[in-house]
From TrEMBL:
This is Hydroxymethylpyrimidine/phosphomethylpyrimidine kinase. Pathway: Cofactor biosynthesis; thiamine diphosphate biosynthesis; 4-amino-2-methyl-5-diphosphomethylpyrimidine from 5-amino-1-(5-phospho-D-ribosyl)imidazole: step 3/3. The gene is thiD_2. One of its GO terms (molecular function) is hydroxymethylpyrimidine kinase activity. GO terms for biological process: thiamine biosynthetic process; thiamine diphosphate biosynthetic process. One of its GO terms (cellular component) is cytosol. Catalyzes the phosphorylation of hydroxymethylpyrimidine phosphate (HMP-P) to HMP-PP, and of HMP to HMP-P. Keywords: ATP-binding, Kinase, Nucleotide-binding, Thiamine biosynthesis, Transferase. PANTHER family: HYDROXYMETHYLPYRIMIDINE_PHOSPHOMETHYLPYRIMIDINE KINASE THI20-RELATED, PHOSPHOMETHYLPYRIMIDINE KINASE. Residues 13-256 form the Pyridoxamine kinase/Phosphomethylpyrimidine kinase domain. It catalyses: 4-amino-5-hydroxymethyl-2-methylpyrimidine + ATP = 4-amino-2-methyl-5-(phosphooxymethyl)pyrimidine + ADP + H(+); 4-amino-2-methyl-5-(phosphooxymethyl)pyrimidine + ATP = 4-amino-2-methyl-5-(diphosphooxymethyl)pyrimidine + ADP.
Length: 264
């Protein structure tokens, strides 16, 4: 039997921990064939993003046309799109992108906004209405809703507010809130539930968000129902964090490891 094909529309992380490099790794380890449309190049390592070079939106669409003309894409994940023009260009394709998982990469790990706020509105108006799942982290959900997000209830309220964009499912990820558990709020079909897993104490957490969204897309491509896909992606991220916890790759936040099939 041949694998399902999945597409990531994302930026390159030269340090290998996040971005399309993390997505392709998660695709392979979750049984799907990965294709990649590159939106932005980052000069990045485990400690910082030093520079960003955007791919022109017209070349993003040229890559999209090439992939979609030939390959049987069964799910799509978007990551760092980096400009309003690119978000709007991808949004133009969105009605024909199956199982679209949108990970809105808007802030760096210090919570600093990476792009002008016109990019936020392009996500809200253009892309979210077509998404099967959107996966903002705490800082992104806060930026997009204007809400202060501190408690579980705040996460649930932000997820519910973002559902008004028309997204099929909203996950407000709580990796930015260390505790005994890693807690995410999931809005789906009118109600909110929480995903919970034990907190993994490690500095090697670069790429958790990309890995969570890419794994969800890989599972949706294999016809796993959305709520099950989120539960399984959550377990996969936990296992990947545990596998990489003792690694020392880079001086900052290192990458996630490779779980085996029995880990998650
Ligand atoms: N230390 C941890 N232990 C267990 N789960 C974690 C940990 N850190 C993050 N997670 C989980 O990983 C997933 C990704 O969430 P997170 O909030 O980290 O995304 P992100 O901010 O987009 O990623 P990044 O921190 O890499 O920028 C969520 O399910 C979150 O709960
Ligand atoms: C090119 C690129 N894309 C995305 C992220 C954020 O990734 P994450 O939220 O998983 O750390 C990143 N640091 N670099």
């Amino acid at each position: 039997m041949q694998p399902a094909t999945v597409l990531t529309i994302a930026g390159s992380d030269s340090g290998g921990g996040a971005g399309l490099q993390a997505d392709l790794k998660a695709f392979a380890l979750n049984g799907v064939f990965g294709t990649s449309v590159v939106t932005v190049l980052t000069a990045q390592n485990s400690a910082e993003i030093r520079a960003i070079e955007k791919v022109p939106a017209a070349f993003v669409t040229a890559q999209l046309d090439a992939v979609l003309a030939d390959l049987p894409v069964a799910a799509v994940k978007t990551g760092m799109l980096a400009s309003e023009e690119t978000v709007r260009a991808v949004a133009g394709y969105a009605p024909r992108l199956p199982n679209l998982v949108v990970d809105p990469v808007l802030v760096n790990s210090d919570g600093v906004q990476l792009f002008p706020s016109t990019v936020d509105s392009a996500y809200l108006e253009g892309l979210f209405p077509h998404a099967a799942v959107i996966t903002p982290n705490l800082r992104e959900a806060s930026l997009l809703t204007g809400r202060k997000i501190i408690s579980d209830d705040d996460m649930a309220a932000a997820a519910t507010e973002l559902a008004a964009t028309g997204a099929g499912c909203v996950v407000v990820k709580g990796g930015g809130r260390p505790g005994i558990e890693a807690v995410d709020a999931v809005w789906h079909e009118g109600s909110v539930r929480f995903l919970r897993s034990p907190w993994v104490g490690t500095r090697n957490n670069h790429g958790t968000g990309c890995t969570f969204a890419a794994t969800t897309a890989a599972l949706l491509a294999q016809r796993v129902p959305v709520q099950d896909a989120l539960d399984r992606a959550k377990r996969y991220v936990q296992a990947a964090l545990e596998r990489g916890a003792a690694w020392q790759i880079g001086s900052g936040h290192g990458p996630l490891g490779w779980p085996t099939a029995t880990d998650h």
